[in-house]
Amino acid sequence: MNAPVTEAGWDLAEAAAVLDAAATGAAPVAQLTATAPLGLDAAYDVQRLLIERRTARGERPSGVKLGFTSRTKAAQMGVFDVIFGRLTDAMRLPDGARISLDAYVHPRVEPEVAFRLAVDVGPGDTVDPEAAVDAVAPALEIIDSRYRDFRFTLEDVVADNTSAAGYVLGPWIALADAGDLANRGVRLEIDGRTADTGSTAAILGHPLRAVHAALRRARELGHPLRAGDVLLAGAATPAVALTPGSHIEATVTGLGRAAFTVADATADGATAPAATIRNPS
Ligand code: OOG
Ligand code: MG
């Protein structure tokens, strides 16, 4: 496909290549918007081209995520618009995984609520958001901005696929059995100590609103969704930097937990699956 060039002179495919190299090489780059204005539509084009590079390497789309759906997260990063990103199977880490930080630039973790799509939703399809998901799970998201110092504008973070880097899902619970999700406690534990607490009410007022927002954005962007796709609703608490040797656990009241362990910096070979799954070449 021809590389689209914007009015500000952006070669969008080139911008995607720069961000992709930053992710695969775990080496940060300057914010795109430090050079020239990008624009939100162009930023979503870069995001799409970035994911096309991943799928060309064999990764498969596995769902979508929202960011800045809570005031706390928006305030932490200084970006106050809800953002949409794309997940691939290479970002998925098994519950209880032991991961290496080698594959990341400056990774952070945040507790999340995940929903599972029940039906295929093509870009032209209109579906009832409540009927479109059939299960919910506690989750952890690893975010890793490819920009230096983890700083960005709205357009930068959208182009960088909303800092998406990894996710862990706890057990799925049928939505019908999960009860009212409006105000559930969300807790992030690091090495058995509470690092952050929040409520699902902080996610757009109700976490199911994230399903509405994700479906709407996917439609606007012409992004097809499939039954089984994961939808991360966005964190209700600020993200916390990952450090070697730590054990990370997210708990959502009534839903259970999701967890992973970060390998020791010195423990050579005790790493992966993150490093190996994440960047298949
Ligand atoms: C952007 C991703 C935000 C969330 O849950 O709000 C996000 C970032 O903070 O780097 O995933
Ligand atoms: Mg998140």
Automatic annotation (TrEMBL):
<feature type="domain" description="Fumarylacetoacetase-like C-terminal">
    <location>
        <begin position="82"/>
        <end position="262"/>
    </location>
</feature>
<keyword id="KW-0456">Lyase</keyword>
<dbReference type="GO" id="GO:0016787">
    <property type="term" value="F:hydrolase activity"/>
</dbReference>
<protein>
    <submittedName>
        <fullName>Fumarylacetoacetate hydrolase family protein</fullName>
    </submittedName>
</protein>
<dbReference type="InterPro" id="IPR011234">
    <property type="entry name" value="Fumarylacetoacetase-like_C"/>
</dbReference>
<dbReference type="InterPro" id="IPR036663">
    <property type="entry name" value="Fumarylacetoacetase_C_sf"/>
</dbReference>
<dbReference type="Pfam" id="PF01557">
    <property type="entry name" value="FAA_hydrolase"/>
</dbReference>
<keyword id="KW-0378">Hydrolase</keyword>
<dbReference type="InterPro" id="IPR050772">
    <property type="entry name" value="Hydratase-Decarb/MhpD_sf"/>
</dbReference>
